Amino acid sequence: MATTDPFAGERLKESPFHPRQAPMNLRDAWSSWNGFKFADYYYDTVYEYFCIRNFCGTYDICPMQKYLVTGADALAMLDRMVTRDLGKLKTDRVTYCCWCTDEGRMIDDGTIFRLDEDRFMLTCGSPCIAWLRKSMIGFDDVAVRDVTEETAGLSLQGPTACTVLKTLGLDGIETLKPFGIQRFPFHGDTLMVSRTGFTGGLGYELWIPAPLALTLWDALYEAGGDYGIHPYGEAATNMARLEAGFIMPYMEFSEALKTVNYQHDQSPFELGLDWLVDFRKPHFNGRAALLAERERGPRYRLTKLDIEGNKVAEDAILYNNRRCSRQVGYITSAMWSPAAKANIALAMIETRYLEGDIWAEIYYPKELRPIRKMARCTVRDKPFWSGPGARQTPPPAT
Amino acid sequence: MKRYDAIVIGAGHNGLTNAAYLARAGLDVLVVEKNDYIGGAAVTREMHEGWYYSSCSYVCSMMRQAIHRDLDLSRHGLLLVPYLGTVAFGDNGETLIDYPDEEASYLELKRHSPHDADAMSRFQADLGRYAQLIRKTLLRTPPDPASFRPRDIGELLWLAREFWKLGEQELYEYIRFFTMSAADFLEDYFENDLVKAAMASPGIIGTALGVESPGSAYILLHHVMGDVDGNVGAWGLARGGMGAISHAIASALREAGGELRTEAGVERILVKDGATVGVVLENGDELYSDIVVSNLDAKRTFTRLLAPQDLPPRILERARNFKIRGSSGKVNIALSGMPRFTGLPDNPYINRGGQGFVGSLETMERAYDAWKRGTWSEDPFIESVIPSAWDPTVAPAGKHWMSNFIQYCPPELADGPWTPEKRDAFGQTVVNKIERYAPGFKDLIVHMEVRTPHEIENEIGLTQGNIFQGELTIDQLLFNRPFPGYGQYRMPLKNFWMCGSSTHPGGGVSSACGANAAREILRDLKKPNIVPDDDCYDE
Lengths: 398, 539
Ligand SMILES: Cc1cc2nc3c(=O)[nH]c(=O)nc-3n(C[C@H](O)[C@H](O)[C@H](O)COP(=O)(O)OP(=O)(O)OC[C@H]3O[C@@H](n4cnc5c(N)ncnc54)[C@H](O)[C@@H]3O)c2cc1C
Hints:
Strand order of the largest sheet of chain A: 10-11-12-9-3-13
Low-confidence stretches of chain A: none
Number of strands of chain B: 20
Bound molecules: flavin-adenine dinucleotide
Low-confidence stretches of chain B: none
Distance between the termini of chain B: 51 Å
Mean pLDDT of chain B: 96
Shape of chain A: globular
CATH topology of the largest domain in chain B: Polyamine Oxidase, Chain A, domain 2
Strand content of chain A: 25-35%
Order of helices and strands of chain A: HEEHEEHEEEHEEHEEEHEHHEEEEEE
Shape of chain B: globular
Largest sheet of chain A: 6 strands, mixed
Largest interface: A-B, 34 and 28 residues
Distance between the termini of chain A: 54 Å
CATH topology of the largest domain in chain A: Gyrase A, domain 2
Helix content of chain A: 10-25%
CATH superfamily of the largest domain in chain A: Probable tRNA modification gtpase trme, domain 1
Mean pLDDT of chain A: 97
Number of domains of chain B: 2
Oligomer: heterodimer
Strand content of chain B: 15-25%
Largest sheet of chain B: 7 strands, mixed
Structural class of chain A: alpha+beta
CATH architecture of the largest domain in chain A: 2-Layer Sandwich
């Protein structure tokens, strides 16, 4: 007899990889992403972080939004939506990009895969079908389809990733260049592999029709057994991406369409994404506003900080001196970096104070007593960590 | 004839650290190393094709974060990886698992003794308090208690203040602690023998003391005061083996313009009018420099590289009597697969990390008795790690290597000198013991490197194979290290310095000795200090 679950409406959806991931989540550490049950970590955040840096790990990107954009006008439509020049994007290549409101404030960032002349896949953190529809206005031959649930995505990141894929039988994977795409026959279907990721090291993303998800998982874990493969969750991802200097929604930026307070959203310039904005394109959404912003200079700059000492500057406010005379910015993400052995952070700092001294006011608990500490910050222009040979093709063998 | 600003003798990790800082300060520095490889006891060597052993030191937790960060060793290729799951094995095969999860560890202790499970928190708190204080001294030059220089008085006051912060009762406890045996110290906390043995084992590693000998409590502390990313007491592995640490420091040294010469053993230090002026290499080459820094242990430096007539007799006497008894062996084993230990679940988080074949306090003390008689025990204490389970670069895929550190192994045998046969018999003892806990282990063995104190001394020049470059007892610690009155890296000859583990804060891969010595040298040269302390690191 079928009983109906009275809580069905509140339960989270499960990713196609869930049946394998759930038993490995020894700590029952679940959070959620776009309505999916999603691992915060499985066993130990630091262990999983080191799988990314030292061996390889898998990260479930099924909850990430995926849209198939097709038609003769698909390129023109996407090119008008994003700030980057997509004309240069060849078939079987991927590009990172962002899109903005008319005011030049960032709606979201994501990646665009050119699957064919007229076929693109857009991936992003939050649903954006409404904005895509708006962006389609004026283009006749373009269709958008949400393929989030029919496509399973699994990120495989770490120095042994290429070797694992070779062991899986993906011949020639070592010739795949960063941001390239290759396809392999897989159980009567196609496994698409892109050399992309969010960790700053060697890594790939695997794309497969959802019904084959578990087959892929089993084959991958079989191949990766001698190469330290292990699933990792949100917590380890957050560590790796911060070391690599990548931004995260709701940490570094609030999506412009969801922000209540005036200019509590961000522009690409404020986020240090200048390289994503191509003014040689005659038109794209937010161009005029961004041009004006470039002229006057952005008010804030997202800045990488190396903070003295070992106390993590989470939520700290930044000042121009030890006495806190003037607030100059705030921390967006902070952590102790095990790879760089440094106390690192991303911070929004008012451009005009960037040249001066920067001090973080840090609070940390010591056996119940809150301790306040002023720590000197040094601005860094390179990522805190980058994987040795992460961009090499073929990648260094491990 | 070229004249260097400084010559550093020995490319151990401390010598390299010292040279890197001198080079960064603008000095023209040369490091001369006798071997054709660098790193001293922090070394990785491919001893069998595809297998890379950390031949001597094997785990890392004392490395000063401030130095790692300041020399940018990560950029120079260093990645320190923590490992999980340490298991202590008792005499009769009982197991005590140290889980990464605190609750799980508590329940595991409770299985052995509810009393000890509770007592563990107090033990950790007390040890943590002692360790905190010692840690603060690591990147500081010890004060000279007999000096009236403002700096020494200032440092003495600082030290006194730190001690006073402990409170009156703890102050007594602390002083008592320095002279206690590990066994007596643990008696205050635990009742279960396996728990005691597991906790006591760091107290005998590398020392010529037993668990029952006064002073072994401090050795215990020395081994648990380090941390991995703030996780106090945890140990990590260097990706690529311990040699990766030395190579990263050497890379920082080269980047700063320093020069490094291998296969350049020093025969003698040149002394003129009471000052060192350079070195003579084993091949007869003479090299000159304004200052000479020795990375070698105190005994070797003063009794082998310097002529007795160049030294004050008192120093010569101190050097000859410097306590540097060797007591440890190392057996590195290449394996065709992962050993399976009896009594452990098939849990990959805990069955391939570290293994402590501790037995019991009694077994450890019996092993010490054997050492005193100039032989080794058939049932020695072994501390093992399987680095290949945590590092894909040190063994072929699917294959492994196991690092086994053995306490005790005598530098000289009662029945005559070490021979290859006796060395192999020692190795066999170790294999036999592991086989008892992991049946089938012997069948996995692909290659073995057996190192007694004899090999350790001959290969990397640690006198008697003493892993710390000198015993870590109170008479040879802090301002007494290496000799009372010479705790500040400057030695009793003009322009002559020491920077190895024979100096404060002693043995272990920490870079602290080398960095502290560099700070003192720069101060003496009236150069601005560029060597960091870790004052901005908070507990
Ligand atoms: C078996 C073993 C296991 C250990 N395990 C650990 C561990 O797991 N973790 C840890 O932190 N510590 C461990 N230690 C201790 C640690 O390795 C040492 O304290 C540390 O590496 C010493 O570094 P150093 O630079 O002071 O001296 P050394 O490493 O001793 O360096 C001295 C250098 O001088 C060179 N030399 C010698 N004579 C001459 C000469 N005449 N001319 C030129 N060069 C010369 C040597 O070849 C060597 O390179 C272990 C040591 C040993 C031996």
